Amino acid sequence: MIVCVAAFLQLPTTFENLFDFFKDEHARVQWDVLSDGNPVHEIAHISTGTHPRNSISLVQPINQKENMLILQESSIDLLGANLIYAPVLVSAITSAMSGKDTRDTDVLPPGFIISSDGVDDRPNSSLLTVAFQIMVRPDTFADRLVTDSVATIHALISSTVQKIRVAVGFRFG
């Protein structure tokens, strides 16, 4: 079972500025719980599509105990932007790159959808949707586990939304 949750908020900046904020590896520590407060470094970058800021990249949290990378896809056009990312073990990336079977690799990406709020008197305002997913294994399914999972993902999205509000308010407010 996959538990999904989303939050929606309005922020005082253009969707382009917000997209650039989320893509900035130096700003990531301000909002990304996966980096655990550590700086990150982009170790691979593949441009996609026709827009120069559209890409798929591998991001590595610096000084992290786990052997994890962050796989990220980002795209922007005239209507809005999205940034989707997922923690992936280095062993899973290595397996995929060597052509091995990766069907047992769980990828549950959180991410952002960003658009202009479309209101004429607020041209420098964006709408942000934040979404997270976590998996609850069917073999361990129990009411208590579901309750704990919902509480965990609620805390995760609440913390992330609060961090984004503070960072964006400080940067663009």
UniProtKB/TrEMBL annotation:
Domain HD-Zip IV C-terminal, residue spans: 1-168
Stored InterPro entries: HD-Zip_IV, HD-Zip_IV_C
Domain of life: Eukaryota
One Pfam match: PDF2_C
Name the record gives this protein: DH200=94 genomic scaffold, scaffold_216
Organism: Coffea canephora
